[in-house]
Amino acid sequence: MLVAGIAEGCRQANAALLGGETAEHGGVMKPDDLDVAGFALGIVESRNVLSAERVQAGDVLVGFHSPGLRSNGYTLARDVLVRDAASLLAPAYPGAGHSLGDELLLPSVIYAPAVLALRDELGAALHAVAHITGGGIVGNVVRLLPEGLDAVIDMESFPTPEIFFEIQRRGPVAAEEMVRVFNCGLGMVLALDASAVNAAVTLARANGVDASIVGGVRTGSREVVLT
What is the pLDDT of residue 50? Predict the structure, then answer.
């Protein structure tokens, strides 16, 4: 079951599962415990490299929506939400139709097909991409910025899944900490030429990923500004 899930993820990302090994953890892990780690390696032609060097003032930011935690921030989420085994069976948040355990096990969305579709269709109009994983919105969007520019993101321009509000309430966790740890509903942020924004949103949705305009790039001091 575990390898089947990894294989399905590779299929979605158009990647090959080349191999692996079984590590021994004598005296550290229980017999039925699993420790899984992996990485992806790819090749890109220099003409197709997306980087901060392409980003300029006036670019528009498009966000790919995320349905949940997406494999980052689980240490804080567990500390806040999981008191004992029974808590995993309780509703994920007031009014939820599924358990906290099911919420925490939501599969991570694989955005590679949608990003590649935008790159192939939009070409040079797609300037840079930031994957919102560990480090949250603030720690990742800054990576697509060159010196002298800011990214401004409207936090009301995309849906924030209820689980994030539940974490913030039950922590309590400050808003500043939330955006530095979690994606808060943004799985990817893309910087594009303004002329390509509508096409980008349409292409993303055609590839199964909901998306919206979430902000823009302006002159500044290489900061992520949330409004």
Answer: 83
